[in-house]
Amino acid sequence: MQMTMRWFGDQYDTVKLWQIRQVPGVTGVISTLYGSVPGEVWQLRDILALKSEIEAAGLSLSGIESLNVHDSIKAGLSDRDVYIDNYIESLKNIGEAGLHMVCYNFMPVFDWTRSELARVRPDGSTVFAYNQEAVDALVPEEMFDRVNSGADGILMPGWEPERMAHVKELFEIYRDVDEEKLFDNLKYFLERIMPVCNEYDIKMAIHPDDPAWSVFGLPRIITNKANILRMTGMVDDVHNGVTFCAGSYGTNPENDLPDMIRSLKGRIHFAHVRNLKFNSPGDFEESAHLSSDGSFDMYEIMLALYDIGFDGPIRPDHGRMIWGEKAMPGYGLYDRALGVAYLNGLWEAIQKTHG
Ligand SMILES: [Mn+2]
Questions:
Q1: Which has the closest alpha carbon to 38: 92, 101, 107, 98?
Q2: What residues does 104 pair with on adjacent strands?
Q3: Residue 162: pLDDT above 80?
Q4: Which of 8, 256, 294, 335 fits a disulfide with 319 by CB distance 3.0 to 4.6 angstroms?
């Protein structure tokens, strides 16, 4: 595995590359052209500029998270081919830049959903939390407001205000899209992009839906073992793979995370590893990475990744806000660095006892 951290670019991220460089064991970052909007072609010069900036700091650009998919593609609208052509063009440029892993998601309208961005825990740290009743009481517009007002004016990925302006329109285009249609639209998209992925050896890594069930009545498909195996099977190419995000699949306690990892051998191209703590059914918070702080057995998760010979980029996921840090919620330096140290410790122990 290659240990990385997510970085949003100098313009947007409170964390600097030189700080990431000082986290032991981190050799790369995962980034994106953060100012771009879904549907737009990524220019080679912009990708190369991002890459050189990262390399100048002594790190590598280990992959892209995310290259977002336009809603016309997800909803299967008549203009989807235009946006798929643009996506292919972006992939070509990503390939030309020498990059080989692209994370994306296929969630209609919303990216990840939380009801709180700063729930205070007993130790005074603040974390993302999800409460089903609180979400059920909201209309989608309020969800956007809530995310954006809780982020101290920092732009949250996936929750950009320009999307909010179109939220009613977005819901409208998914009116006739059920899970089956969404699977069909994903298959159509994957079949069209696989040739360029093969040509440049770009491993596509779909991010699961978070939480792993339908929100606001919208269909969601990347939620469990059966669906993800259906997805990898329907376009049976190694470049059609997954981002194994423990925190997202783990929102559903019925998902057996180590078992899912083992069933995806050869198809996991990127891993997000973090812990969640369930307080009651329908209420969870993003605890520290440590097993004893949450509900997952992090050792078993790392062991499963080791067992399948996982050798792609891995990153800690959302961190708690601790030690007075002011940063994008979930993406401060301190707790994610603690996460890195812990995951590296687990990995070293596993290597020494299983090697
Ligand atoms: Mn994730």
A1: 107
A2: 206
A3: no
A4: 335
pLDDT of residue 12: 87
What amino acid occupies position 260? M
Give the model's pLDDT for residue 259: 98
- Determine whether 297 is an active site residue: no
Active site residue 317: yes
Q: pLDDT digits over 230-259, tens only? A: 999 999 999 999 999 999 999 999 999 999
Range 315-339 average pLDDT: 94
| Catalytic residue from among 70, 239, 269, 272 | 272
Q: Give how many domains the chain has, as a whole number.
A: 1
pTM beyond 0.90, yes or no? yes
Residue 152 has pLDDT above 70, yes or no: no
Domain carrying residue 87: 2-354
Q: Taking 80 as the threshold, does the pLDDT of residue 146 lie above it?
A: no
Ligand 1 mean position, distance from CA 78 (Å): 30
Q: What confidence tens digit (pLDDT) does each residue in 84-96 have?
A: 999 999 999 999 9
CATH of the domain at 263: 3.20.20.150
Catalytic residue flag (residue 239): no
212 C-alpha to ligand 1 centroid (Å): 12
Active site residue 272: yes
Question: Active-site residue among 100, 239, 269, 318?
Answer: 318
The CA distance from 183 to 212, in Å, is 15
How close is the Cα of 10 to the center of ligand 1, in Å? Answer: 21
**Please, are residues 20 and 332 in contact by the beta-carbon 8 Å criterion?**
no
Q: How far is the CA of 84 from the centre of ligand 1 (A)?
A: 24
Q: Which residues, 6+ apart, have CB-to-CB distance to 195 below 8 Å?
A: none
Q: How far does the centroid of ligand 1 lie from the alpha carbon of residue 58, in Å?
A: 25
207 an active-site residue?
Answer: yes
